[in-house]
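Input record, target 12 of the design panel.
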């Protein structure tokens, strides 16, 4: 098993994703990014013919990344899909109110996310994440006609384009911070969307089997490999994944203006999704419950009158889970309700559109990261009294 230390994690900061990086660099050098983005809007399903006029370098990249890794265990992937069907609304809740805020707790990641957010569409990141996960857990995710593989291919290029901009525009201190969206950050994101989600399900009192949890983690291992994560350093199981995530978060967690801003956008977004205004404070209360008071304070999540009431949610969910465990009809009804709820939430986030994950030709002009950000700006909680 790989052991993660600060030295080994520092080494992971030195490189990104060679295949995607070289593809994006060539597209920019040849002035073909606009052509690529325009034509790729018509490439949304796996196996569809690539449009005429697509740059050769992009065509080669899409061919090379058109299949999952050869080591995939399809039995495990089917277990993961069934786990998602059984827990889809809970997984969506954990992604929205735990995993995404946890990303905002890493200051340099919050900076990166801010750099690529659309001002007129602040929910774009959540929409992309939700749609990406739903595509992943479809029964035909890796077959012709699916939307998942094109989404993976585009997200990988999106990451590479951010690296390209920041490195070539001298807007990132590579000597101090390493490569933007480096291997450490890619693996960290994979852990947040897998282990932290499982942690949140446990905190919500969702009944999970060991097999189900391991299969869900395995599915994100496959996703990580397809997104360019170096498998020589990626955690292979839940135990090593936990070690990586704990080390990663303790290295970087802290407050930042960008983290606060992104969290406020997230809360505002979901308060719009929740009908009426009576239950709006539940959004903040649920985030605070799932990530804890210290992290919530860093992100300036408001304290509300629902903070105490939301602690009863695990008990209520436990009752529903018991009904689901004992009644096939109850299980069907709850799974169907979960499916409809997830679809409603995703439709609200995406505004009915398909996310394109285009390569940004420019980043926000006010983007910048101080070379001292990861270390000296970390906030240390006061000692316990």
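The sequence produced for target 12 reads:
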């Amino acid at each position: 098993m790989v052991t993660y230390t600060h030295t080994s994690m520092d080494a992971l900061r030195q490189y990104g994703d060679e295949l995607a990086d070289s593809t994006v660099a060539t597209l920019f050098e040849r002035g073909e990014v606009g052509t690529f983005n325009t034509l790729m809007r018509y490439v949304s399903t796996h196996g569809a013919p690539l449009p005429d006029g697509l740059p050769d370098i992009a065509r080669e990249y899409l061919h090379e990344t058109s299949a999952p890794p050869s080591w995939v265990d399809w039995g495990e992937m089917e277990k993961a899909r069934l786990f998602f069907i059984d827990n889809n609304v809970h997984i969506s809740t954990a992604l929205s109110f735990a995993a995404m805020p946890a990303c905002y707790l890493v200051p340099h990641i919050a900076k990166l996310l801010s750099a690529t957010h659309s001002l007129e569409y602040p929910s774009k990141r959540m929409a992309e994440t939700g749609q990406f996960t739903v595509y992943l857990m479809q029964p035909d995710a890796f077959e012709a006609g699916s939307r998942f593989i094109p989404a993976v291919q585009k997200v990988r290029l999106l990451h590479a384009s951010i690296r390209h901009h920041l490195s070539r525009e001298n807007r990132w201190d590579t000597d101090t911070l390493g490569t933007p969206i480096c291997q450490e950050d890619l693996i960290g994101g994979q852990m947040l969307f897998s282990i932290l989600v499982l942690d949140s399900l446990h905190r919500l009192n969702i009944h999970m089997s060991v097999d189900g949890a391991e299969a869900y983690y395995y599915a994100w291992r496959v996703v990580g490999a397809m997104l360019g994560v170096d498998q020589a350093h990626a955690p292979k199981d839940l135990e090593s994944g936990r070690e990586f995530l704990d080390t990663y978060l303790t290295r970087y967690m802290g407050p930042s203006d960008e983290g606060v801003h992104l969290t406020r956008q997230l809360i505002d977004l979901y308060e719009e999704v929740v009908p009426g205004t009576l239950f709006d404070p539940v959004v903040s209360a649920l985030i605070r419950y799932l990530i804890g008071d210290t992290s919530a304070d860093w992100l300036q999540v408001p304290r509300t009158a629902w903070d105490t009431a939301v602690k009863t949610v695990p008990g209520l969910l436990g009752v529903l889970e018991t009904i689901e465990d004992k009644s096939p009809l109850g299980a069907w009804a709850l799974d169907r309700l979960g499916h409809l709820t997830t679809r409603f939430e995703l439709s609200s986030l995406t505004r009915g559109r398909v996310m394109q994950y285009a390569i940004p030709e420019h980043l926000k002009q006010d983007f910048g990261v101080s070379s001292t950000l990861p270390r000296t700006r970390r906030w240390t909680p006061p000692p316990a009294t």
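The chain has 19 helices and no strands.
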